[in-house]
Amino acid sequence: MAHKRTASAVWSGNLKQGKGTLSTGSGAIKSTPYSFAMRFENAPGTNPEELIAAAEAGCYAMALSADLGEAGFTPDQISAQGTVTFDMPGGKPTLTGLHLVVTAKVPKIDAKKFQEVATATKAGCPISRALSIPITLDAKLE
Q: For the whole prediction, is pTM greater than 0.85?
């Protein structure tokens, strides 16, 4: 059965002085402000690129848990951090890559098996499959 998730954005004004809000259908994000300065000048607040990094980190952590379970291991904890690179090749704002840093506590698994599962998960995570940018991974077993 297909699941549909929704999000919305409202923008008022021009690019540099305008402002907007982001909301999700679930209400987890509700009228969260974003602006040019939040995207391009590192002003405090969220932006679409940060939300892509969060989506990948969240998806990957859950997918790694599932893949470890299928391999016979139950993780105590998985921490994943996603960092997108937002650059201007050819003068056009572009996501050029995403880097995942993952640490996991997984009883009874050896480092080689953990790396094998972690690498396979990167290719299989639904958000990873949706992105056309290169995704790199640094996975560590604690």
A: yes
